[in-house]
Amino acid sequence: MSLNIIIYDVGVPLPSTLNYNNLNKKKSYDSDRKCNKLADDLSEYKNVFDFCENFTGVIENFDKFSFVGQFDDDSCKVVKFWVYDRLFNLRTNNTNVSDINKIINKLNENINLDKIQKCTIFDFKYSKEVFYKMKSLYDYATNYKTIKDHLYGKNYICNKNLKDYIDKNYEIYINIKNNCNTSDRIHEEYCKVYEYIKEVFINEALPLSCKVRNIESEADEQEEFGESSREGMTQTLGSLSQGDKERSVFSGKSERGHDSVLTFEDHKPSVPITNIIVGVIFPLLGIFCIFFIFYKFTPFKSWLRTHLLKKKIIQYYEVEEYIQKNLNESYHTNGQHMRYHPL
User: Fold this and answer.
1) Is residue 222 located within the same domain as residue 338?
2) 5, 16, 159, 272: which has the fewest Cβ within 10 Å?
3) Is residue 313 located within the same domain as residue 241?
4) Which is one Pfam family of this protein (predicted)?
5) DSSP labels for 279-297?
6) What residue ranges in 73-174 does DSSP mark as E strands?
7) What is the pLDDT of residue 1?
8) Angle (deg, nearest 10), helices 15-25 and 48-60
9) Residue-range definition of the domain harbouring residue 312
10) Running DSSP on this structure, what letter comes out for residue 63?
11) Comparing C-alpha atoms, which of 88, 102, 101 is closest to residue 133?
């Protein structure tokens, strides 16, 4: 089993993913000096500068976060799981980091954490394997009620990805429970997490379960989920600042929060040029045909000719009247300037 369960499209937006995505968007753009120094100190690791900008942005906005899910009032734990996940996913020599103690020490040296004194970020003393068991259990508890309500509304029909997610996390839950209920509690650390969430957030007597739908229904559900995700993102963007709107991304991320990013961009349907041509030409042809039928087979032809001839005659007389009037005026004008000169 993978240390970190990657979540694919499960048919419902999961609070844990939304929370981590929210943290991924926060960046500090006034931290170049300290982040450059940190990147130099940790030059063997990749993407340290980007993580540093993100981390300092989270620290600066710590008191402003509003999370969703079962732990919406516990910002400290959400941030801690996010930080450790990001640290474990820094890479060096094409491999993930397994020992992050050096990175944590350099972060403490370069980043001022006084703003979040009430939250001790770096007190997880776990191996990578233990950490991801804890994180999977914590995220599952965060998403538990959302999944439960979703299954109830769908008559406990789900897609395969959601069923796999439930089954894998329930297996982790049972294993941790068995380890923590023995007298020899080898991993006391994640037993604390287990004790914290077991009664309040996970109903062991009624484990989540669902039946996988057929392929056709699953395709329809994925389309419906895509529409609801875009609507949810539109509402979310409405509550963000302008700067956040420009950088916002949604939700096709993995549970790690930064593996696969789906940019929020609606697919606009293109209109074929043939449709446009047909829409213009056909009405014109219809008008021409109607006019031809009226002209050829109805009294409209004689009426039109009579009307045009009458109009031409009227115009002729108007022109004649205009010319005669000008001639008369010219005659009278010339007459007024005549003088008699005797010989």
Assistant:
1) no
2) 272
3) no
4) Plasmodium_Vir
5) HHHHHHHHHHHHHHHHHHH
6) 91-92, 95-96, 157-158
7) 38
8) 100
9) 299-343
10) G
11) 88
Q: Who's near 332: CB < 8 A, 6+ residues apart?
A: none
164 falls within a domain: yes
Percent of the chain as helix, strand, coil, to the nearest 5: 65, 5, 35
Q: What is the pLDDT of residues 7-44, one digit of tens each?
A: 668 889 999 999 999 999 999 888 889 999 999 999 99
- Cα–Cα distance, 140 to 171 (Å, whole number): 11
Which residue in this structure is represented by tokens 């960046």? Answer: 27
Quick check: is 65 in a domain?
yes
The per-residue pLDDT for 277 is: 73
Strands (E), the chain: 91-92, 95-96, 157-158, 211-212
Which phi and psi (to 5°) does residue 70 adopt?
-65, -25
Please enumerate in sequence order all residues whose Cβ is within 8 A of that of 300, keeping only pairs 6 or more positions apart, or say none: 294
Report the C-alpha gap between 117 and 210 in whole angstroms.
43
Say how many domains are in the chain: 2
CB contact at 8 A, 292 and 258: no
CA R_g for the chain: 39
Q: Going from the first residue of the chain to its last (343 residues), give the mean pLDDT of each consecutive group of 10, the final group possibly shorter.
A: 62 93 91 92 92 94 88 86 94 77 91 86 84 90 93 94 93 87 71 78 77 67 57 46 39 39 39 67 78 67 61 51 50 42 40
Both structure tokens of 160: 């395969």
Of the candidates 77, 90, 40, 39, which has an alpha carbon nearest to the alpha carbon of residue 258?
Answer: 90
* Kind of pairing between the strands at 95-96 and 91-92: antiparallel
Whether residue 171 contacts residue 133, with contact meaning beta carbons closer than 8 Å, is answered with no
63, 175: one domain? yes
Amino acid making up residue 273 = I
